[in-house]
Amino acid sequence: MRNQKQEPKKNLLEEKVISITRVTKVTQGGRHFRFSATVAVGNRKGLVGIGSGKANEVPEAIKKAIQAANKNVTKIALSEGRTIPHEATAKVGRSIVLIKPAKAGRGIVAGGAARAVLELAGVKDIVSKSLGANTQINVAKATLEALQSERTPEHIAELRGKKVEEL
User: Fold this and answer.
1) Which residues lie below 8 Å from residue 131, measured CB to CB, with a gap of 6+?
2) CATH topology of domain 2-74
C-alpha cells in the first residue's frame, strides 16, 4: 500500500532547482569541495515540497535533493484553485516571507526562490514579499511554511464545530 502512494507522486511532480552552491571543507590536507543543491517539487495543484542534498558532483547533489523533496511533499490550501485564503508570514533563520492573496489575473508577484515554490504549488494569483535576509534556501522554506499555515474557511469551521455560514 505504501509504495502505491509514493509511485504516482513521483510521476506527477515537476522539479525546479532553487540553488546550487559549492561548499568547502578545509582540512589539514587541503580543501575538499562538494556541492549542495536545493530543489522544489510540486504538481501545480496544491502539492509542494522542498529538499536539499550534498554530493561531490552536481547531478548527484540534485538527485539527492529531489529524493529529499519527494519525502517532504505537503498539501497546501488553495482558495478558488488560484490563490490563498488569507495573508500569512513565516520566518526561517533571518529570512521572513509575507504572502498575500491577489485578485484574478494578477499573476505571481514574487522573486527567486519564493516564485519557484509558489509556481510549483499551483498558486496563480499572489503577492509575495521577502523581508530580512535573502538566503535562497531560507526564503524557499519560509514560503513553504507560510503556505502550510494557510487555513480554509471550511477547516476553521470544522475546528470550531460550526458551519461555514455561521462564520
Assistant:
1) 95, 96, 97, 98
2) Double Stranded RNA Binding Domain (3.30.160)
Cβ partners under 8 Å of residue 149, min gap 6: 88, 90
Q: How many CB atoms lie within 10 A of CB 22?
A: 9
For 160, the grid coordinates are 470550531
* Structure confidence at residue 151 (pLDDT): 83
Fold of 76-155: Ribosomal Protein S5; domain 2 (3.30.230)
- Rounded Cα distance between 76 and 40, Å, is 14
Predicted confidence band of residue 161 (pLDDT cuts 50, 70, 90): confident
Q: What is the pLDDT of residues 76-107, one digit of tens each?
A: 988 888 888 889 999 999 999 999 999 989 99
